Amino acid sequence: MSPAPDPRPPVPDWFDRRPLLVLLLFTVGFYWKLTLTNQFTYLETPDSAYQVLPWYQFQARTMHRGVFPLWDPYQWSGQALVGQVQPGTAFPLNWPLFLAPLKNGYLDLAWVHRHFVLLHFLAAVFMYAWCRQVEASRFASVAAGAAFSFSGYVGTTPWPQMFHGAMWIPLVFLFFHRALERGRGAAAPANAAWCGGAVGLSLLSGHHQAPLHTLLALGGVAAWLLWTR
Fold this sequence. Notes:
Elements: H1 14-17, H2 19-30, H3 32-35, H4 46-64, E1 71-72, E2 79-80, H5 81-84, H6 95-98, E3 102-103, E4 106-107, H7 109-133, H8 138-150, H9 152-156, H10 160-166, H11 169-181, H12 187-204, H13 209-228
Antiparallel strand pairs: 1-2, 3-4
């Protein structure tokens, strides 16, 4: 005789059914000092406090006046914000931060912290998507997304302009992999364009370091594939 079915409902596997929610909870928990309290900040380094935050402050005030910030006349005897790239003026994911409500005329650090945590969550999601693209399990993909976002270069770099450039690495290789898989069909150039778009966002996000290393790695992989095929 076959055993009687268990009347109890199965225990939900959150890694399998709600992987992005798990990643979100991991992100909130890992950065609990920024998400659950207002007693801490990641801007305690000199570069962040005296360079990055003034960049963000000027851009936020300018955008709240309805003007796109191209030139900052108050630092370094004037500086081009778009020309030097590092302030992240042309990075679309910075614009919601610059348009967030100000506090007494200044950029509210609570929004700066939420922006920082949100982009770390996106970095984890990008790595999760890349792992799923190469057919890793959902559990392994969640673990890889958390490891990529919370440790290594992405997790320990205090400069947002450098972290913002590195967060796109999984998407670059995801679309490159898709372009190779789709062969000569119409989807191949579309995915190649998305790959180039991810590289472009990495370049616009701030520092040139991460996108340069990403392009070198991508070029190496492409050269190896051409040689072996």
